[in-house]
Specification:
Helix content is 12%, strand content 36%. The radius of gyration is 27 Å and the shape is elongated. The two termini are 32 Å apart.
């Protein structure tokens, strides 16, 4: 099985509290602010069964467009003309000329959704990426317009286009946070270029990730989605946009009933930031986080395993200034309950920089309130990539070679001076440590939340016949693991 982006070849959440028309907040930008029609009311889930969605489709179909892209032929990098000086003299030594075997013209096909009367259209970044020309064809009249690319966000696979046209019919935006598993949904797009097509299914799951993007919170649906549907609309039973169709899980590249859409709340926040600022403004906290595994919960005084576990804090970051520590579990941020590390990353990323937010953390079994002011995330923001929490439950291995950290070993394994602990200098291949992902160069920093600075600190820790919570640093990031002295069962 493979994930496939379905074109043919991811800030502050600005939520309206009532149904109606809403304009932007007046910040300067190169484009006019979008006028969005937003309905935050929950879906009506009680009542008689619907026997036809024709009225819904008649309302929303004019909002879904075809997106055609073209890329001009480009010569490859100039290549050197070998030996021309042999025929024409020294003045031609080193002569270069364009490689006529360059790239060929390319065309692409996808879909988009009109979201405002000003002509703003939501689609996927991968639909228009690298294109020289983007054209939009309206439905049902097939009027064609050349679209301007307002902005793109590869981190969430969102792109915003704009056309200059009159009498557009923008779609109404719903609230994707209120969509529930089991809700009926309709997918509208232009699969395989056959023309506008509607399929029906339900919300199969929410919060899907691991598709290679930095910011992922996909809605999963079994509504048929195929190549060409990228950028199309996923609407609820009342015709409100709740997602932008993006990817499928498939062996053949065609529909197998597992499709994914970017939630409209995420797409909308990215769009408004691109329009108002020219780039996506994301909050920056400065922590390395992981999920709380069930086996870890008791070590942190928790009954459940929800929340995001802080494995490290970037020095000088907003998290550091707020007093956050390794071992804290963020259970709430800005009034939102945090499900896991992926959720915290999304919530922080959609939060406005230079504003204060309240956090609730679990520290040693006690809930503590903390205030933090976020910075803006940018390419220069110091951060460490979060390591996967998979295999976080392994066994205390007797097949590791442990050594005191010396200056020579720090240089050899490129371990920063701020990292204190004992070095794993060797691991038996195929053993429990190896299978758990431990490699030479890892540093054991804590055992059972007690610092380990030397081999002597291991004395008296009673590691035999019990499980231990171990904090390990490896290749720039720390990670907690529950390690047992012998296999279970």
């Amino acid at each position: 099985m493979r994930f496939a982006l379905i074109g043919t070849m991811a800030v502050a959440i600005l939520a309206s509290v009532a149904t109606g028309w809403m304009k932007g907040d007046g910040r300067a930008g190169d484009h006019p602010e979008p006028t969005l029609k937003i309905d935050n009311q929950p879906l009506k889930r009680e009542g008689s069964m619907t026997v036809s969605f024709a009225p819904v489709i008649q309302k929303v179909a004019p909002s879904v467009v075809k997106v055609f892209t073209s890329t001009e032929a480009k010569p490859n990098a100039s290549r050197r003309g070998p030996g021309l000086e042999q025929f024409f003299g020294e003045k031609f030594r080193g002569f270069e000329f364009p490689d006529m075997q360059g790239s060929k013209p390319k065309s692409g096909l996808g879909s988009g959704v009109i979201v405002s009367p000003e002509g703003y259209i939501l689609t996927n970044n991968h639909v228009i990426e690298g294109a020289d020309t983007v054209k939009v064809v309206l439905s049902p009249g097939n009027e064609e317009y050349t679209a301007a690319v307002v902005g793109v966000d590869p981190k969430s696979d969102v792109a915003v286009l704009k056309i200059d046209a009159l009498d557009l019919q923008p779609i109404e935006l719903g609230n994707s946070d209120q969509a529930l598993v089991g809700d009926l949904v309709l997918a509208i797009g232009n699969p395989f270029g056959v023309g506008q097509t509607v399929t029906m299914g339900m919300v199969s799951a929410k919060g899907r990730s691991n598709m290679g993007l930095d910011y992922e919170d996909f809605i999963q649906t079994d509504a048929a989605i195929n190549p060409g549907n990228s950028g199309g609309a996923l609407v609820d039973a009342e015709g409100r946009l709740i997602g932008v169709n993006t990817a499928i899980l498939s062996q053949s590249g065609g529909n197998l009933g597992i499709g994914f859409a970017i939630p409209v709340n995420l797409a909308r926040s990215v769009m408004e930031s691109l329009i108002n600022h020219g780039h996506v403004m994301r909050g920056y906290l400065g922590v390395n986080i992981q999920d709380v595994q069930p086996a870890m919960a008791s070590h942190f005084g928790m009954d459940g395993s929800t929340g995001a576990l802080i494995a490290d804090v970037v020095p000088g970051s907003p998290a550091d200034a707020a007093g956050l520590q390794a071992g804290d579990v963020v259970v709430e941020f800005g009034g939102k309950k945090i499900k896991d590390s992926r959720h915290l990353k999304l919530v922080v990323g959609q939060s406005a920089p230079n504003q204060g937010y309240g956090l609730e953390i679990n520290r040693g079994g006690e809930l503590t309130a903390i205030e933090v002011s976020l910075d803006e995330l940018n390419d220069k923001s110091p951060q460490w990539a979060s390591q996967s929490s998979r295999n976080a439950e392994s066994y205390w291995p007797g097949d590791m070679q442990l050594e005191e950290l010396t200056p020579d070993l720090r240089r050899q394994f490129q371990i920063p001076s701020r990292i204190m602990g004992i070095l794993v200098s060797g691991v038996k291949q195929g053993g429990a440590a190896w299978q758990a992902g431990v490699r030479p160069g890892a540093v054991i920093r804590e055992i059972n939340q007690l610092p380990v600075d030397s081999l002597a600190d291991l004395d008296g820790m009673q590691l035999v016949d019990r499980e231990s919570l171990v904090r390990i640093w490896y290749k720039g990031a720390s990670n907690y693991r529950v390690i047992r002295s012998e296999p279970l069962g």
